[in-house]
């Protein structure tokens, strides 16, 4: 089965860079994600067309993540989070990545350097569900070994504001 899930196969260098004005625009969006182009234009002292063009460039340049990143898995009943490190037969990396993308509970897959090849963020309803998901990961051809670590508590949420504030001061 081929997944309909979009898989981002880019590198960090493929993301468009931003300048101080872009950073100010992104900070304003962070404060009010529903702000209209006109409201952003007025609050930043920029022309409406400038804001519209910059937003379009930021979206097409991969600077903005999809809206779905804002949805918390807990709201969908997935109260258990885990990180699975996966060791892969090196020639099977593409196939293993595609297999992981076919598992709905897999939220993100990151290539690593070091002993493990992939870091897989997953969510589960409970421990039995996590066992099922782990078995699915192990069943993917090319997976040699996995190690599962439960996420017990989030101490710092995903954030960009400190970096945007620094970029806005450039």
From TrEMBL:
<dbReference type="GO" id="GO:0005829">
    <property type="term" value="C:cytosol"/>
</dbReference>
<dbReference type="Pfam" id="PF13404">
    <property type="entry name" value="HTH_AsnC-type"/>
</dbReference>
<dbReference type="InterPro" id="IPR019887">
    <property type="entry name" value="Tscrpt_reg_AsnC/Lrp_C"/>
</dbReference>
<dbReference type="InterPro" id="IPR000485">
    <property type="entry name" value="AsnC-type_HTH_dom"/>
</dbReference>
<dbReference type="InterPro" id="IPR036390">
    <property type="entry name" value="WH_DNA-bd_sf"/>
</dbReference>
<keyword id="KW-0238">DNA-binding</keyword>
<keyword id="KW-0805">Transcription regulation</keyword>
<feature type="domain" description="HTH asnC-type">
    <location>
        <begin position="18"/>
        <end position="79"/>
    </location>
</feature>
<protein>
    <submittedName>
        <fullName>Transcriptional regulator, AsnC family</fullName>
    </submittedName>
</protein>
<dbReference type="InterPro" id="IPR011008">
    <property type="entry name" value="Dimeric_a/b-barrel"/>
</dbReference>
<dbReference type="GO" id="GO:0043200">
    <property type="term" value="P:response to amino acid"/>
</dbReference>
<keyword id="KW-0804">Transcription</keyword>
<dbReference type="GO" id="GO:0043565">
    <property type="term" value="F:sequence-specific DNA binding"/>
</dbReference>
<dbReference type="InterPro" id="IPR036388">
    <property type="entry name" value="WH-like_DNA-bd_sf"/>
</dbReference>
<dbReference type="InterPro" id="IPR019888">
    <property type="entry name" value="Tscrpt_reg_AsnC-like"/>
</dbReference>
<dbReference type="Pfam" id="PF01037">
    <property type="entry name" value="AsnC_trans_reg"/>
</dbReference>
